[in-house]
Amino acid sequence: MSKYDVIVIGSGPGGYVAAIRCAQLGMKTAIIEKYATLGGTCLNVGCIPSKALLDSSEYVHEAKEKFAAHGIKLSGLQVDLKRMVERKDEVVAQTVKGVEFLMKKNKIDVYHGYGSFVAPKEIQVAKEDGTSETLHTDKVIIATGSKPIVPSAFNYDKKRVITSTEALNITKIPKRMVIVGGGVIGLELGSVFARLGTEIEVVEYMDRILPTMDLDCSKELTRVLKKLGFKFHLKHAVQSIKATSRSVTVNVQARDEEEAFDIKADYCLVAIGRRPYTDKLGLDKAGVQIDEKGRIVVDEHLQTNVEGIYAIGDVIRGPMLAHKAEEEGIFVAETMAGQKPHIDYNLIPSVVYTWPEVASVGKTELQLKEAGIPYKGGKFPFKASGRARASMDTDGMVKVLAHKDTDEILGVHMVGPRAADMIAEAVALMEFRASAEDAGRICHAHPTFTEALKEAALAATANRAIHI
């Protein structure tokens, strides 16, 4: 029986990063992955492949909508979606190989198979060939991630009624697609196909898209996506989904009306959220507790009710984000080594990779109001940015929220070009408890998109913005 200091179950961003940090800290480490490739959902069927397709589709959109303005003339523009998907697969393969290299570099033993508890310190690996192996360990990190939520009434068949996993492998541009859910995953993949010419209809039960993000971001992205051709059915619920070999019919009803109507399309993409994936993990044999939502219960050190068993990422509370899982993986490794690591969950940024991108950190305006926190705000539109005008990326804005009395930055919310990268500056400022005045006094290179953050901070500081 092989013996380890720590075994990590799951090789997604949280799992493999945790394994690397454990190995760096001198622990004999193993990682178990049920699939043939490492990287989990994020690298194989999530973050990385979706961004590859988003990038490819954005080039198409630029060519169709903006090249002429730049003096670039095209005729007979064609889209080879099959080649786009092939390139996506190449990017995934390269990334997965990178993780395999990191495991070898850090001398981490990799086991492919289904990992489950036999006892709190014994893990069985059931392999694809029918054999199994039992591993012994002092500590365990559960990092098994999440799976899409698909109600049985939706008749999920992986052909016409699909999730993000199947959407990433469509090789013929659909004429029409219905997306159930106005959250991050649905809007990102909807953007991919809308840019390629697909008619997109989004059915969202709430009164707006991105309901957990700041209202101004939601409104701004709605406006932009409508220009792209999106049609939204807000405050609507799906009653049923029926598929044939060639099409799908989605029956939809408004929350405050009795009459329902049908939407017919080539595909129905179900993107209503994800659930913790702990199937067949044998948590009962280890005595690990879960809550009413199926999440593993952990304490402030991310340890379960069983000493030596930790859990990170999508299987525990908090936003289901790859970078959140990574931070937790490092946190647990360092905690096990006797260090005193730190995570501020309020400062974990959220990003939507549409174009323009949406990024947010800290409190929304609604959260501040509900908490009774006195605040002030400043906004700066990208249409007033010289850099944005030069690149024809004038949609969106940056919004800075600061404490009314102390001027400390409490939240930053942006819709705009490269917002995913720009939000890092806001996170850094807030980590060091900076004021809006601090942000406004930092010299930013000109012309850059990040000047919009400076201007929004100035706008929040006694309305001092220069360029609006």
Task: Report what the structure shows.
The protein is α/β, with parallel strands linked by helices and 468 residues long. Helices cover 33% and strands 26% of the residues. The chain is built from 14 helices and 22 strands. The strands form 5 sheets. Strands 1, 2, 3, 4, 5, 6 and 17 form a 7-stranded mixed sheet that branches. Strands 8-15-9-10-11 form a 5-stranded parallel sheet. The longest helix is centred in the first third of the chain and has 25 residues, at 81-105. The radius of gyration is 24 Å and the shape is globular. The termini are far apart.
Provide a short characterization of the protein structure.
The protein is an alpha/beta fold and 468 residues long. It is 33% helix and 26% strand. The chain has helices at residues 13-24, 40-45, 47-65, 81-105, 164-167, 184-196, 215-228, 283-286, 322-336, 365-371, 386-390, 419-431, 436-441, 451-460; strands spanning 2-9, 29-33, 109-112, 114-119, 122-126, 132-142, 146-148, 161-162, 176-180, 199-204, 231-234, 236-243, 248-254, 260-265, 267-270, 274-276, 309-311, 350-352, 357-362, 375-381, 397-403, 409-416.
Give the key terms.
22 strands, single chain, five-stranded parallel sheet, 33% helix, Enolase-like, domain 1, seven-stranded mixed sheet, FAD/NAD(P)-binding domain, alpha/beta, 14 helices, 468 residues, 3 domains, globular
